[in-house]
Amino acid sequence: MSEKEYVSQARSMEDILAAIAKLPGICSKALQQWGAIEIVVRKKKRKRSLDQNRLGRLWCKEASEQGDMTAEEYRGYCKLHFGMAILCRDSEKYLAACQKVLGGLTYEQKLALMMQPHDYPVTRGMTKRQKAEYLNECYQHFTGLGFRLTEPSLQGYEEAA
């Protein structure tokens, strides 16, 4: 066991019982290595909201109906141009990983990695604040091209605008 912490997430009693079943062995190893441990139970914080996710997908679909790319291509474009810029700005670790993994690739290769079936993780690691900034960038980009998009406030997505 390294200096890493053990984290288990649960949404049901079955999940909780499965995590508890592993706990004696994990605690025993941790005590041997560290001497003292801390056991914490807390409410899981959601990184992004489902509304933000739906809104981003909706805008890509709307853009595909008005533009010359598919919704998935627009999603990949936004991840590469807006999402990665936000995450790289906010995390030196993410920036270094991107440079290591994507640094030698062509633009076309990077864009392909943002889309299915590869789906390079970008927005999945965002906080609500970062996702709101990302959505604002997407909205400005698409509306700047003349696309008509669903207004966030009309759909109850106030946190995204």
Describe this structure as you would to a colleague:
The protein is an all-alpha fold and 161 residues long. The protein has 2 domains: 1-44, no CATH class; 50-160, no CATH class. The chain is built from 6 helices and no strands. Helix 2 (50-66) crosses helix 3 (71-90) and helix 2 runs parallel beside helix 6. The longest helix has 22 residues, at 13-34. It is elongated and about 60 Å long. Residues 155-161 have low confidence and may be disordered.
Concise synopsis of the structure shown:
The protein has 161 residues and is mainly α.
Count of helical segments? 6
Question: Total number of β-strand segments?
Answer: 0
Which parts are unreliable, with pLDDT below 50 for 5 consecutive residues or more?
155-161
Instruction: Please tell me the total number of domains.
Output: 2
Judging from the principal axes of the Cα atoms, what is the shape?
elongated
SSE order, as H and E? HHHHHH
SSE-based structural type: mainly alpha
Distance separating the two termini: 44 Å
Strand content: under 5%
What is the rounded Rg?
A: 20 Å
Tell me about the biggest sheet? none
